[in-house]
Amino acid sequence: MSTKFLIHFAQIHTDFRIAELESLARLNGINVDLHKGSPDLSSPYLVVELQSIDEAKKLIERSILVKEICEYWAEGKTYEELFEKIKQNPERNMLYKKDSFKFNVDVFGGSNTEEEKLRKINNFSFLPFKGPIDLKKPNQEFMVYENYGDVDSPGGRSSEPKVIYFGRRIASSSRYEMIKKFTLKQRKYLGTTSMDAELSLVMANQALARPGTLMYDPFVGTGSMMLTCAEFGSYTMGSDIDGRQIRGTAGYRKGINGIKANIDQYKLSHRILGNVVFDICQNPWRAMDLYKDSGWIDLIVTDPPYGVRAGAKKLGRRNGTVEDYSFKIVDGVENHKRKDYYPPTVAYEMEDVVVDLLEFAAKMLVVRGRLVYWIPTVTEEYQLDDIPIHPALELVANSEQPFGSWSRRLITMEKIREWSEADSKVYNTNPADSENSSRCTSSTSLSGLPNNKPSPAHRNFRARYFSKFIRQDSPATPADAGN
Length: 483
Fold this sequence. Notes:
483 residues, alpha/beta, 7-stranded mixed sheet, 6-stranded mixed sheet, 14 helices, 24% helix, disordered C terminus
């Protein structure tokens, strides 16, 4: 028999909350309908049905967007209605007759003075609780939630609660502890594109990071996602075309910079396998046919460089290979063998980065493995079918973080079958652009869009951002936007 529970969300990143909970339900083997009654994202409360209190605890234990979960007792538009519904279950009310207890009043969209809260709590004196009041470590904690409505919700805020919930608090999530632990304010090594702690933890949850799995970040940067996935038990590794990001300015040996400083800070060296410098288009596994029978990576979690803070690069020269430069001698040493050598690169357009990332994931992920990545979009041009697809991958979640005229979307995909040679020849979005493509292989494109559809909202994003959005949206640009 199922039991009702009330989930209390943090009122931030509202478009991500259901996707994260669905991932955590999948991770714990919990069956729950999170779309029942069309969840109101303007409200921080959601009633769900679960099989047990243990399921409720597991569901939200490592959630980053949930504050707590309560055993749902009743709800009403007024306190009188609420009290009548609570009284309809006297057997449940008697269960906690002798326990120590406390009451809390939580208000969303309104305010209560301490005197008003105390008065409302005293109105629950009809309950048969005879145990001592304990404000520090009670056996039971009862929650009163008043929802006055969000200012942006239909009808706006009201002077009286739109709904009042009452329940018994079951558990809190690890939200505050995890965000505090991984906050960028305390991190030893940062870059201009280091991912915000809250979102990097959400990404790890979306990817189903867990013990016994292998995670890979092909655009590792300063390693934010690698750290959070390792925290949840995954073995992790990363790569980047620019080794200076990985090493930091002081290098590994001094131990005061680079990703290693962060690994040591969080004591995660036993789960982080290492980082390698290479271009994902020239990855060392491409000729090994590791994906022919089955993939070998469980989760790919990454923030591809899309140009707000740094543009994506790939190996190459604008004019192609120049033999005169290939074996240039500098101080008696071939240039490419020098320790400070940095190979020439060319721009790697966002739409091509994403297409190549999907192809890589389709090959290298195990079946049911997940790809979690960010993609920027122009708000007024975005359409659902802008999101690239692949025959071997299924879209699981598409959550938006808006910044005005542009936004970025966290895309979660799951591999549903093995990759085949035919997959790379299915879709061709912009055949006229094939000569100018910056993809690893320019002959195909896997966005799955019909040939007559306008360009996707992330095409040439970097150029459009700096020519248009930077002037009007720069105050809203987050420090971690645009790896």
